Amino acid sequence: MASILLAVSLAPCTTTAQAAVPPEARPGEPSRIEFNRDIRPILSDNCFACHGFDGKKRKAELRLDTPEGAFAIRDGTQAIKPGDPAQSEAWHRVASTDADEMMPPPKSNKQLTAAEQLLLKRWIEEGAAYQPHWAFLPPHKDTPPEPAIPARAANPIDRFVQARLAREGLAPAPEADRLTLIRRVTLDLTGLPPTPPQIKAFLNDPAPGAYERLVDRLLATRDYAERRTQDWLDLARYADTRGFADDRPRPIWPYRDWVIRALDGNMPFDRFTIEQLAGDLLPAATDEQRLATGFHRNAPQARGQTYPVEEYRLKGVTDRVNTTAKVWLGLTMECAECHDHKFDPISQRDYYSLFAIFNNIEHQGSGMGQGGPTMPYPPPPGATTTGKPVAVPVMRELPAPRETFIHLRGNFLNRGDQVGPAAPAVLVAAGEPQPRNRLDFARWLVDGRNPLVARVVVNRFWQSYFGHGLVRTPDDFGAQGTLPTHPGLLDWLATEFVESGWDMKHINRLIVTSATYRQSARISAALGERDPHNLLLARMQRVRLPAEQIRDQALAISGLLQPFTGGPPVFPPQPDRYWEDRDLPGKWAKSTGHDLYRKSLYTYWRRMALHPTMELLDGPARVVCTVKRNLSNLPTQALVTLNAPVFVDSAKHLARRLLAEAPDDPGLRLELAFQLCLARPPDATERDRFLSFLDTQVIRYAKAPAPDLAAWQSVATVLLNLDETITRP
Asked: Fewer CB within 10 Å: C terminus or N terminus of the chain?
C-alpha cells in the first residue's frame, strides 16, 4: 500500500501556434474567417521563417506577415489577390503537389493539412483581411456578457466563461463541496493545507459570504505572501549561488525577504516593477528600493581568472534583456539577439536598443575582482551569522552611459551600428518619447498604456490557480504563442488590474472567489472527450503540488513546520557528499533545531546541485527565468516521498500527533489523519481498508519498542504519499 501515484495535471501542451488554437477558433459550422484566429497561426508555423519580419533571411523578397507584402504585384503576379484564389500565387504553391513548386518546400519538413489549406482558400475568397497581432493592440474592457446562469455568476469572470460555454452548448460543473473548497483555496493561497480548526470554522459558518471571508483571512496572512514569492523567485531566477562551474555562494537572501515584505504589504504592481528594475534611480532612493534591484543581480555570474570579463558582463546584460521581456512583455526577445525575429516585428536593432537600457550597470569585474556593486544589509535578529552586515548585490548606474552596438550574429566582437536606448518600436506609438534609462523604461512598462504588461501578469495569476493561463504560452504572446481561450476575459482582467491601481491581491481575490474557480474537478466521459485540456473551463483542474508545497505540506500536517521571519537560508538534510561527488566546492552544513523544518522557500538553493528533494520533484535550478514549471511523473519521485529524511520524520511525527490528539480509538484516529491530510473524512471503503492495513502493521510491529507508533507511522506514510494528498483538488 505504501505506493505513490504522482499526478499529472494536464497532458503537455504543444508550443506551436496552430495546435493550441481554442475550440471556438475552429467551429463546426461555417463562419467568417478571422486572420488572428484562423490564418496567422498557419502562416506563422509554416511561412514566416522565410517570408516574415526578418528581411535578411527573407526568401524571394516575399513578405506574408503584412498585407502590403502579400498583395504587392511582382513581375505581374500577386502572392495573394484578395477575393481571387485562382490569381493568388501563394495559393497555387500551397495547393501544388509538384515538389519544385509546393510551399512549404519538402525540405522544410512542414506540410499544411487539408483543413488548413481550406481555411487559407476561404480567407482569400473572403477578401484576405489582415489584422494587427492581438497582443500588440491595447486591451479593451468590454461589458461582461449577461450570465447564462445568473445564480452561478459570482463575479464578471463567470459571465465571460458562461457565455463561452453557452455558445458551445455546455454548462459549468456544479460547485465543489465545502471540504474540497477549503483545501483547494488554502493550498493555492498559502501553500499549506487547512488546519482542523480552520476547517471547523468554515463548516460552521452558514452565513452568506463565508467563503469570501475565508479568502480574505488567507490573503491577509504572511503565508500568502510567501506562496506568491515562490512564483516570483522562479521569474527572478533567484538562487543562493552565482552559478557556472564553481557555483560559489552569494548573499542574495535579503532580496528574497524584500519580495515577501512587498507582497505581504500588497505593494501595487507598478511600484513593485519600478523598484525592482530601477529602484536605485528613484529620487532619494531608500535602502529598501536599492535592495529591490537585486532582481537583476540574481542572474548567474561567472568569476575567475579563466573568464573573459567583458564577454561575461555582456552575457549578464543579455540575461537582463531576455528576462525582462519574458516577465513583463511575454515575448521571446532572445530570438532577436543574433538576427531580426522570425515571427514577430522585433528587429535586432530593437533588441540592442533595449540592451542599451540595461548596459549601464556598474560592473567591477576583473580576473579575480568583484562581480558588481553591493550594499550592506544587517542580518535579522537571532540569525545564525557573525552578526556582521552582508554585502548584497544590487544595481548601480554608471555616471556616463556605455556605448552600445548591435552584435552581428550575436558575437560581441563583431560590432554593427551603434544604437541608443529605446523600447521595441512595435510597442511605442508614433511621436511617443522613448525611454532613455532603466527608470524611464520601468515607468513606461506600467504606465497603463502598454498593451502587454497587464495581460501577461494576470495571465500568470490565472496559471497559478488553473495550471494553465488563458494564454497557454505564458512567455510567448507573439505570433508563435497560443491564442487566449477567452480573449474578452483576459482583456477585462488586464484593464481591471490597471484600474484597480495594479492591486495584485484584488485580481487574485477575483479569481479565487469566482464560481469558475469553485467548480468541481470531476469530469464526465463526454466532457473529457470533447475538451480534454479544459480549454472551455467547464470544470476545475486538478493540479500537482509544486515541489516546495509537497514538502511543506508534509511538515505542516505532522506539526513539524516552523515559522520563519526571514534571513539566511537553511540546510535541511541531504545525502552525504552530494556536492563533493559533483566536484563542487563547499560542504553542506546541516541545520539544527527549528531550522531543520522551515518552509522550502528558505532552503539553500544551489543552481548546480539543487537539493535532491526539490530537484526530483521538479523544482527549477533557476539558471534562467522560469515562467512555467515542467511537471513529470517518475518512479524516483516516490522514492523521495517515501524515504527522504523530511518525509520519514513527517510520517513519524504525524503518527505521534494522532496518538496524542485523538482518543484511543483506531477509527477516530483515522478520521483525524484524513482530516489533516485530505481535509475530509474517509469513506466506508477507505475506512475498512486502512483499518485492515493497520491491523497487519500492529501484528508486524508487535515486538517493536513502540508498536503503536510504528504501526501508525506506516499508516501516515501511506496517507502522505497518496495521489490525492500531493494534488490540489
From this structure: N
Q: Which three cell numbers, joined as nine digits, stand for 281? A: 534611480
- Find the range with the poorest average confidence among 51-60, 234-243, 512-521, 564-573: 51-60
Cα atoms found within 13 Å of the Cα of residue 393, Cβ hemisphere only: 27
The owner of cell 553591493 is 374
- The residue ranges of every structural domain in the chain are 23-131, 231-453+474-483, 552-633, 645-728
333: Cβ contacts below 8 Å, ≥ 6 apart: 321, 322, 325, 326, 346, 351, 354, 424
The answer to whether the pTM exceeds 0.85 is yes
Average pLDDT over residues 368-386: 73
Task: Quote the cell numbers at residue 198.
Answer: 480552520
Q: Are the beta carbons of 394 and 377 closer than 8 angstroms?
A: no
Q: Determine the Cα–Cα distance for residues 186 and 512; give it in Å rounded to an integer.
A: 10
Say how far residue 691 (Cα) sits from the centre of its chain.
41
How far apart, in whole angstroms, are the C-alpha atoms of residue 589 and residue 570? Answer: 9
For the CA atoms of the chain, what is the radius of gyration?
28
Helices 707-720 and 645-661: angle between axes, nearest 10 degrees: 120
Which grid cell sits at 115? 483543413
Backbone angles phi, psi at 2, to 5 degrees: -80, 65
Using an 8 Å Cβ cutoff, are 552 and 192 in contact?
Answer: yes
Distances (CA, A) of 526 to 77, 88, 188, 523, 532: 49, 42, 28, 8, 10
Rounded CA-CA distance 436/440 in Å is 6
Rounded distance between C-alpha atoms, residue 655 and residue 39, angstroms: 60
Q: For the residues of 641-664, what is the DSSP string, one character each? A: HHHSHHHHHHHHHHHHHHHHHS-S
**Could you report the per-residue pLDDT of 328-357, keeping only the tens digit for each?**
999 999 999 999 999 999 999 999 999 999
CA distance 142 to 453: 19
| CA nearest neighbour of 59 among 119, 121, 107 | 107
**Contact in structure between 90 and 103 (CB atoms under 8 Å):** yes
